[in-house]
Amino acid sequence: MSGMWRRASVSIKGLVHRRTSIATETLDEPYEITTSKRQQRHTINATWHRLRNATSFRHSRVLYDDSRNNNNNNHYYLPHSVPRPGLGNEPPVIPRNTGSGARAAVAAWQHEMFSTTASPLRNKRLTLDSAQNDRESGIGIAVTSTDPVADAVQDLDMVTPDGEVVLGACAPNRVDFISRLPVELAIQVLAHLDAAGLAIASRISTRWHDVTSLQHIWRDSYLREKTGTFATSEPIRQGTGLGVPLSRPNMDWKDAYRATEELAKRWRNGKATSIYLHGHSDSIYCLQFDEYKIITGSRDKTIRIWDMKTMTCKVVIGPPEVVKSNAILCDSEGKPTHSATFEPHIGADARSKRVTSVPTTMAFPTHHKASILCLQYDEDILVTGSSDASCIVYDMKGGYRPIRRLRHHTAAVLDLCFDDKYIVTCSKDISICVWDRATGELLKQLRGHSGPVNAVQMRGNTIVSCSGDFRVKLWNIETGKQIREFQGHTKGLACCQFSEDGRYVASAGNDKVIRIWDANTGECLREMKAHESLVRSLHIDSVSGRLVSGSYDTDIKVFDMETGRQLLDFPRWHASWVLSAKSDYRRIVSTGQDPKILVMDFGAGIPGIEQLESCPQQRKVEEVKPDPLDHGGYI
């Protein structure tokens, strides 16, 4: 009987249609074993060939879970046509047309799985070694590090005492990107740090120290950090005398940065070295200065030019009868009358010293016959106003020779200002005059104040003026019309100032109060009870936002424009009334009723402070020599 069945099966096998193998079915396709019956795909091949594949472990994937401990969602990576043993409560799966041999193989396989605990098919918890062999998943892939010590620590953190991988404990990636970048890109990255950040970065490694020592980094950092302003129309331009130097081959930007930081610290602490200049014989009403010179005007009818570097007087300009006198150069004992007294600068042990000088004296047919009350200069001209009701324009590049006289006011010229196009003057005659700078022609006379106009300032096409009538007014210089009036002061005003960008106006006077106004709206932004007597002088440093005031109470004070807070107070540095006080990035220079000039130098003795100057070479006030062919009257 068995022989008949064997011959019949061979006959039927020859009649069965052979199907094509499914090439896309791979051993890597996952298959989920469930209790439901599913239609299985298969191929018709030799029975023993299929049984050989079923019992081979060469193409099967590692099983990652212990089926005896977890009967739910057991996933195995076995092909569909391979017989599978039953796991847990699940029955075995025998594909159709595989014959009795497949059933026997499955039974043997299942018996082997459950009869030994050491079977290689039993799932175990992952260890570091087995995880590293899983090349297609992220398990076991550690974050790399260039530091061997860090790698060792990282490996310890990743493996628990039980041998379990803990990916969440991986240390962050630490790469020295500066060392890997080209120098040009490293400079671009580190140049975004300020001085403190660069100092820290320089201590990280030798490579970082080398890169942070390059001048390009310090230059870019300096120009980014130190060219901002409080109230200017643009950032500080290099080489304009505002504390930002020109770029030049031998420039040490790190020293410049260090000097700037030390200078700012001294401003915060009020640490300044005082220098007193002697030479005038009466009250000094007005002054202007830059990095290299100071020009002063006095009640003694003279204009004097001082060298800021040496603090010596270089030139005296005045009426012939004044400059002819021997007393202008020497005292009764024959000693020079012009001198500078230096206090020891901060950190120095030396005593104060005195330096004398003998200036050149000059007189011209065109001169003032009374007190010099106001002055202003630029690179081309010097303009002075006097109690003789006139102004004189001098040629700065032509030996200070007078160019023309401006005469229209009927009383003393109390203040003046100019730009590239106009010269504006104000007077005790309660008027403001606008002149053409190039020709000296009177263009307009503005009237509107009911008292002496004590101060004027100009920004663009706008003039600000203040008067003894308690009023601050804005004028359009083109039309001559009043734009706005600021009211709030309760007594006569002595001084007013525009910020450089024209947004703010500061005013003060006999009510002892400084007011800051919004120039666009007329609103009073801040009110500062500043002094105990008349406030005679105001100066806005639009770069730093400092407001410097001088008063009849002999004090000089510094305020913060933004908050109105008092920053510094220098009481009684003058022996009498303070008549004028101005400042720049490094100094405050003031004059008063006592005939001496006070220079408060916050940068004295700072290493590298000269790096902040606008010119690489030290400028000198040119020695003015009499011209023998000029019959104008050098004396």
TrEMBL record:
Residues 175-221 form the F-box domain. WD repeats lie at residues 277-316, 406-445, 446-485, 486-527, 528-569. Keywords: Repeat, WD repeat. Belongs to the WD repeat MET30/SCONB/SCON-2 family. This is F-box domain-containing protein. It comes from Cryphonectria parasitica (strain ATCC 38755 / EP155).
